[in-house]
Amino acid sequence: MTVEEYNRCVDLYSDNVFRFILKSLNNEEKAKDIVQDCFEKLWVKVDSVFYKKVRSYIFSTAYHTMIDLIRKEKNHDLYMKNYPGTTFHTTHYNDLNEVLHQLILQLPDVQRSVILLRDYEGYSYKEIAEITGLSESQVKVYIYRGRLFLKERIGKVETLL
Asked: Residue 91, exposed/middle/buried by CB under 10 A (0-12, 13-18, 19+)?
């Protein structure tokens, strides 16, 4: 891949990767860091990544970097749970978009990621399988289960309004 192709990739995909990570983590700074790490990793392997496959490479790298961060934070959260000075505050949202976003955050990491890639980013099942390293049938099952969870929690839209 040439430098021009690399720069074109940054222009084409950085916003999409940022949105995907932001929807998953709900933290703008961490999302920016992951996008930056992702493109740094691409730059290191610029000679070995084909330009036609770069979209998959970028989203796969971002996905795996995000999963690593989530795992690291879960370990940290388990430690902090026993810390006596920790307080939790929950808020109630009336906005349907916020309710849906909060429900998406309750999904297991894999289900959240595949739903965001499918419904928010518009990837095919095959592309999602390549990005996440799952089989195509696993992707379909996770999307089905995630949508079922969301449907059960939301119920009828009229009850939210």
From this structure: exposed
- Asked whether residue 36 falls in the same domain as residue 58, the answer is yes
DSSP 8-state code for residue 107: S
Spatial contact of 25 and 56, defined as CB atoms under 8 Å apart: no
Nearest alpha-carbon partner for 93 in 6, 143, 2, 161: 161
Q: How far apart are CA 91 and CA 108, in angstroms?
A: 21
CATH number at residue 82: 1.10.1740
Q: Which pair of structure tokens corresponds to residue 21?
A: 């990570």
DSSP classification of residue 49: S
CA dihedral for 109, 20, 31, 24, sign (positive or negative): negative
Residues 6+ apart with CB under 8 A from 46: 1, 3, 6
Scan for tokens 């505050």, then name that residue: 89
CA 139 to chain centre: 14
Residue where a domain terminates, one of 63, 89, 115 = 89
Tell me if the pTM is above 0.70. no
Return the axis-axis angle of helices 54-81 and 3-25, rounded to nearest 10°: 40
**What are the tens digits of pLDDT across the range 32-87?**
888 888 888 888 888 888 888 888 888 888 888 888 887 777 765 555 555 544 44
